[in-house]
Design a protein that fits this description.
heterodimer; A: 278 residues; mainly alpha; 10 helices; B: 295 residues; alpha/beta; Rossmann fold; 2 domains; 6-stranded mixed β-sheet; 4-stranded antiparallel β-sheet; elongated
Chain lengths: 278, 295
């Protein structure tokens, strides 16, 4: 498989002047593999990113969830399952916000993006690699949280519930990665990180990702249903049977988020392209 | 034969500012084109349009007969830009493998490291490289696709003399394969040594074009330098003499016909010591060209 087309004729395109040592390359699968690896290592080696995105949710979970994990909620379900679902949603929200938002915002307008643009790397592979990179960080975070919940928090549930929890959490990264993309294209290279931080923590709090919504102030309880992460958390909790909200309504909210921020990203991308390359 | 680079009526406006006036250009396979001009002359804008990184306001650009933004032409082009800003948390060999994966044909990693003089630095993080080493990394990345056309935008900026010599040696080796090169630089002796063709651009227009010999010929002068008792004032009246002045006790005469001048000096019996005749260097030619336009 290769995207390279043979030269149609010498009249259209003169023959290549290859070096004697040249070898075939440019097949799309190794290209995608290299691109994913690059996107991942680029952020993995920046402790300010990898430590805060992977360790903060783990530390918060240990401090604020593990001690209460064996308790039972008023509705009779396990607090451990509820808290695991909530803190994982909180952590993955951070992965989506930060991995896209900050990497897109800092790279945009740098010589690096110009250089990449001048290569034959197709845009589809570039974007796919970024999304796969975010999903890898998401899986990595869950690989820390699930064993921690099992061994330290003594969270127990059926295998299919673990699987459903995993799937719901990871798929939920996609609409929020659109939020991250939009942030990356609309915020400046220096303001993306502060904006992401300012939005991330209050949003997580107000959406009930740290503690049950019932224990939050009345005003916050009224706002929460209008915040997309609230619906993400409800959906994830529903997957492990600790909440019985309306799946359709939560899905609609997440799809709406993906759509609105997807359009915002596309608009921001076009605006940036015109500015950089117009 | 299809031109490697073909520009037809290509111009660029940024708002009301006319950065490049409509220009035509043909570059053939095997040409080594030196792109010269003062800062802000429109060099980078023109190169960006050739690379498909800027859309021309009018006109068309073709590389190998294809639009420059098509994957077909990008697969055959290698570029070295100023301030490429490669992420510091990646390693040299990782970046090479990445770029090698992009192109339909590639050169072996060992050869790229060798050509760029980065063999010892192959496992180093980009953030640990010096400015000159980064430039060499960008060169290696530009060669990753074994390009038929190489764009080099001020490639030796930040390199020391030794690194510059090694760099141009590598570039020259590359041209032996029939590859085409377009480069800009501030070091005029580099253009003089390497280019088969020079394009001088100023205020968004091509003001001169030709071989280094022809460009130097545009100013036509040769410099005659000698120690003599002949007064400079007198020489200024000689036919064919453009300027005459005394510098460091030596008389310097700029003339189109040095033979006529010397014949007259000898026949009139003036003292002549330490005589030298020098061809005008490119820098002098270049300065006189761009100054004429500025006046």
């Amino acid at each position: 498989m290769s995207y390279v087309l043979p030269a149609r004729s010498t009249a259209v395109s003169p023959q290549r002047a290859l070096s004697p040592t040249a070898v075939r390359s440019g097949r799309w699968l190794p290209m995608l593999g290299q691109q994913i690896r690059t996107e991942f290592m680029k952020l993995w080696r920046i402790p300010a990113f990898s430590a805060s995105v992977l360790l903060f949710p783990v530390i918060l979970f240990v401090l604020f969830a593990v001690p209460y994990a064996r308790e039972t909620l008023p509705n009779g379900s396990s607090a451990g399952k509820y808290l695991l679902a909530s803190f994982c949603a909180y952590g993955l929200l951070g992965v989506a916000f930060f991995s896209f938002g900050i990497s897109v915002a800092t790279e945009r307008g740098q010589g690096w993006m110009r250089l990449i643009r001048a290569t034959p790397l197709p845009a589809t592979i570039f974007i796919t690699a970024k999304i796969v990179m975010a999903l890898m960080f998401a899986v990595l975070l869950l690989a820390l949280m699930f064993p921690l919940a099992f061994f330290a928090g003594h969270v127990r549930m059926a295998t299919y519930e673990w699987i459903m929890l995993f799937i719901n959490l990871v798929v939920g990264v996609l609409p929020f990665s659109m939020v991250g993309f939009a942030l990356g294209y609309w915020a400046g290279p220096n303001s993306a990180a502060p904006i992401a931080n300012i939005v991330y923590l209050p949003l997580s709090f107000a959406s009930g990702l740290w503690q049950p919504l019932e224990s939050l102030p009345a005003i916050v309880q009224r706002i929460a249903p209008y915040l997309p992460p609230y619906h993400y958390a409800q959906l994830v909790r529903r997957a492990v049977g600790v909440e019985d909200g309306k799946t359709g309504q939560h899905l609609a909210w997440l799809l709406g988020t993906a759509l609105v921020f997807g359009l915002l990203s596309a608009w921001g991308y076009r605006r940036d392209q015109d500015k950089q390359y117009g | 034969m299809v031109n490697v680079i073909e520009l037809r009526g290509v111009s660029k406006c940024y708002g009301k500012l006319q950065a490049v006036y409509p220009l035509d250009l043909d570059v053939q396979a095997g040409d080594i084109v030196g792109f010269l001009g003062p800062n802000g002359a429109g060099k980078t804008t023109t190169m960006s349009m050739m690379l498909g990184l800027r859309r021309p306001t009018s006109g068309t650009v073709r590389l190998f007969g294809q639009p420059p933004s098509s994957l077909q032409s990008r697969a055959r082009v290698g570029i070295m830009l100023q301030e490429s800003g490669v992420p510091g948390s990646l390693r040299v060999d990782e970046l090479l493998r990445l770029f090698q994966s992009y192109y339909p044909y590639t050169l072996p990693t060992a050869e790229l490291l060798e050509r760029a003089g980065l063999v010892e630095k192959r496992h180093a993080l980009v953030s640990a490289l010096s400015g000159g080493q980064k430039q060499r990394l960008y060169f290696a990345l530009a060669l990753a696709g074994d390009p038929d056309l190489l764009f080099l935008d001020e490639p030796t900026a930040g390199m020391d003399v030794e690194a510059r010599l090694h760099f141009w040696e590598q570039v020259r080796g590359f041209t032996a394969l029939g590859k085409t090169i377009l480069f800009s630089t501030h070091y005029l002796e580099e253009v003089d040594a390497l280019a088969t063709r020079i394009i001088v651009i100023d205020k968004g227009r091509i003001i001169a074009e030709g071989t280094p010999h022809e460009i130097k010929g545009l100013t036509a002068d040769k410099h005659v330098i000698l120690r003599t008792n002949l007064p400079a004032d007198l020489v200024n009246g000689y036919p064919g003499v453009r300027t005459a002045q005394v510098q460091n006790g030596e008389l310097q005469v700029a003339t189109t016909r040095p033979e006529d001048f010397l014949r007259r000096v000898f026949s009139e019996g003036w003292e002549v010591n330490d005589l030298r005749v020098k061809e005008v260097d490119l820098e002098t030619a270049f300065l006189s060209l761009t100054e004429e336009v500025h006046v």
